[in-house]
Amino acid sequence: MRSTYLLVSHGSRDPRPQVALENLAQLLSQKLPTLGNSGASGVPTVGTATLELGPAPLHEQICHFAEHTLSLGLTEVQILPIFLLPGVHVAEDIPAEVEIAQKTLSPKLKIELLPHLGTQEAGLAKLVKTQMQEVAFLPNLQLPKWILLSHGSRRLGGNSTVEEIASKVGAHPAYWSVKPSLEERIDSLVRDGQQQIGIVPYFLFNGGITDAIAQKVEQLKQQFPTAELHLANPLGVSVELADLIGELIQK
């Protein structure tokens, strides 16, 4: 196999998302040999990089990883954007950084930019459903209504994936940065007489935003005392998530 693999995330000042990304890279390393993709040492090389808040600009991180790739006798780097939404980072920022890196690198090495993780709608819907099933609701009350809470994108069509997944899992979409907000969704459900409401964060890993969401839910519990609000976990690192990335490599 000629390729190594570089997982690119947004980046955060909170260390937890980076730790999770590295754990995901390790899981992917363990999965790839079963797909017939092995590096020179018999185990695929999977690295991590960040678009923002990294040790260097993304194109420099790509170049450094590419040099390592060449040292292994391999000639291709496949870049996998670990993003759920097709926003400006996926559509513009990462491709621009990849282009800069490719111009800098030896023509012997090829960089292939793969589709972002959010294109795996069916698999992501299954992961969301799993997070929903882990929430225990109080007995003897009406069936819960669910809200799928995403960061949200102002880009035209940027939230279509969220709406599609929400439809697949029977949830109402809401957004952290655009409307309809979590508070607006809850208010609408409570006005309809709903007593139990589940909230599943459509985020990959725990971090600053998921902490803020948890704090917001505690405030909303006081604001809507007639409703039972239950917060699920974000998707998190799992073998199933690594499998979805492996499928992107195989396509």
Automatic annotation (TrEMBL):
A UniProt-annotated Pfam family: CbiX
Superkingdom of origin: Bacteria
Membrane listed as a keyword: no
Keywords: Lyase, Metal-binding
Protein name: Sirohydrochlorin chelatase
Species this chain originates from: Microcoleus anatoxicus PTRS2
Record-linked CDD domains: CbiX_SirB_N
Gene3D superfamilies: 3.40.50.1400
Lineage: Bacteria, Bacillati, Cyanobacteriota, Cyanophyceae, Oscillatoriophycideae
PANTHER family reported for this sequence: SIROHYDROCHLORIN FERROCHELATASE, CHLOROPLASTIC (PTHR33542)
InterPro entries in the cross-refs: CbiX-like, Sirohydro_Cobaltochel/CbiX
SUPFAM superfamilies xrefs: Chelatase
